[in-house]
Predict the structure.
Amino acid sequence: MAAFWHGSCFIVIQDSNDDVCGDLTMSARLKLEEVHCASDGHVTVARVRLSHHERSGSGTASARTSDGIWRHVVAEATLSALREIIDGNLDVTLDTVAEVGSGRYPIVVVTMAMGRGRSEIFLSGTASLAGDRFSAVAKAVLHGLNRWIEPFLAITASSAPAAPRPVGPLPRVRSN
């Protein structure tokens, strides 16, 4: 039997033999596969691809281009990719994405709210901006969420996906 909190509910998972459904002890960390962010001058668009065991999820987000909006767009795309991996069962709201000076290299700090009402919890994650700044934002989101989403990922990994999910770049759509 396994148990964990989800929102305001305490969830217990067991099968008819009183065995745990799925291997909740397996590694539940997400892997950041790809982060891309670009601006055409008017709109900033980000695409993030995550994987977890045999599953892969891609998320996109966009916003009108303004100073520093790329941080928020990448963070939203990361949450979108995560929702795809866990079939949409994630009630997380992005609060703030900010760059903070810290020693030699700045860091990115992401704050989020998970749940609603009395069961709402606030999460934060950080990552160094020393390397790829787009990946740093996605890593900060995952840093803030990883330990809270492990039960969802373990359940998702133990259930077979309905169909194989595509990996690699998304196909280009051509319109006439």
Residues 2-150 form a domain with the Double Stranded RNA Binding Domain fold (CATH 3.30.160.270).
